[in-house]
Amino acid sequence: MNKIVLATGNKGKVKELSELLSEQNIEIVPQSDFNVPDVPETGTTFVENAIIKARHAAKITGLPAIADDSGLEVDYLNGAPGIYSARYAGEQGNDDANNSKLLTELNGVDLQKRSARFQCVLVYMRHADDPTPIICQGTWDGSITTEKHGVQGFGYDPLFWVAEHNMTSAQLPRDIKNAMSHRGKALMHLVKHFK
């Protein structure tokens, strides 16, 4: 199996990407297995942050690297939380605090004005000095509910309403979510490159 380091410590992302790439004879190894520290995400876009993370992981491990930068854009909030999705409430990766802050920000906002989308940018770098990284993007449109529903997934999944299935992302069966999600779509583009 080919090993690729995934530039994240997020167990949800590792599991999701491992499932999606298992058929490609690719083993996804989280950067935490190599004691790779997080790198400051100093970019102003999802693309910049994904490149920073992939380059950092590839440089330290010597392996090819995949990094994703993803987040939620809420139209009523002019695209916020955007690149700050994981630390929207201040503390990196505190899903409960981030969800609570989002619900507070949208308190009293009509359901028709709660449109949102998940964005995912995946970057694949063959090595740290790769001058032509592969960049793939996926988008998943939905809206924000007024309260949390479901326990699967992570991040904003319990608030992200998927109208086609009349449930939140956190209520969707994993195979359906993987096929529809922003990360799933970006990864399908990446799989085409691997083939």
Explain what the structure shows.
With 195 residues, the protein is α/β, with parallel strands linked by helices. The chain has one domain (2-194): Maf protein (Alpha-Beta Complex). The protein is 30% helix and 24% strand. The protein contains five helices and seven strands; from the N terminus they run βαβαβαββββαα. The protein has helices at 11-21, 46-61, 95-105, 174-180, 182-194, and strands spanning 2-6, 26-30, 65-74, 115-125, 134-144, 160-162, 167-168. A seven-stranded mixed beta sheet has the order 2-1-3-4-5-6-7. Helix 1 (11-21) links the parallel strand 1 (2-6) and strand 2 (26-30). The longest helix has 16 residues, at 46-61. The two termini are 15 Å apart. The mean pLDDT is 92.
CATH class: Alpha Beta
Number of helices: 5
CATH-derived topology? Maf protein
Shape field: globular
Helix content: 25-40%
DSSP summary, beta strand count: 7
Query: What is the beta-strand fraction?
Result: 15-25%
Distance, first to last CA: 15 Å
CATH architecture: Alpha-Beta Complex
Largest sheet: 7 strands, mixed
Low-confidence stretches: none
Class from helix and strand fractions:
alpha/beta
Number of individual domains: 1
What is the element string, with H for helices and E for strands? EHEHEHEEEEHH
Strand arrangement within the widest β-sheet reads 2-1-3-4-5-6-7
The overall pLDDT average reads 92
Radius of gyration from CA coordinates: 16 Å
Helix-strand blueprint:
Layout: E1 2-6, H1 11-21, E2 26-30, H2 46-61, E3 65-74, H3 95-105, E4 115-125, E5 134-144, E6 160-162, E7 167-168, H4 174-180, H5 182-194
Parallel strand pairs: 1-2, 1-3
Antiparallel strand pairs: 3-4, 4-5, 5-6, 6-7
Helix pairs in contact: 1-5, 4-5
